[in-house]
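the two lines:
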Amino acid sequence: KQEVTQIPAALSVPEGENLVLNCSFTDSAIYNLQWFRQDPGKGLTSLLLIQSSQREQTSGRLNASLDKSSGRSTLYIAASQPGDSATYLCAVIETSGSRLTFGEGTQLTVNP
Amino acid sequence: DAGVIQSPRHEVTEMGQEVTLRCKPISGHDYLFWYRQTMMRGLELLIYFNNNVPIDDSGMPEDRFSAKMPNASFSTLKIQPSEPRDSAVYFCASSLAGPYGYTFGSGTRLTVV
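prediction for all of em together
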């Protein structure tokens, strides 16, 4: 059974800092990996999707990498801003159209 | 595209009542998922459909929960009778087959008192 772990569970940083969120998964036979953001009381917003054949994806200040062999992904946020404060969720997809298996999330607070 | 649309946004009901949650997936998507989110258990998959057919309902907690997808543009999740432990946020998501991501709705916050 696939298990997804995110470290740290919570992170508080000053504005402007670069930071890395970590995600690990137990079964490396994945199809895709998707990072989401969730604001308090809100739904999930997709940030980046990495296909199994890719090593990384970038969108603005966000960069996500994937190392299937080691079962790890990282989300790098450059020059963090208070508006980046949210919970970040990592999810793996094992086959096309199958379920997403989520980690517990990292709660990020960026202090002005 | 309006995205995945869920209704209602909030639902407060008394224990024992029937609750129906609704979802309209993105047009053209052939997969639809129902997830439940709680503080204790995080995001859990309840059931998912492919081309309106239920594929995996192993996450449905018990017989009080049922889900239907009568056509490609509509799905319901029903709880009858509801219990306080069913209080959670219920999300619907849809996707296309292939190397595409999943899109989530805004969720329905259910409170059973």
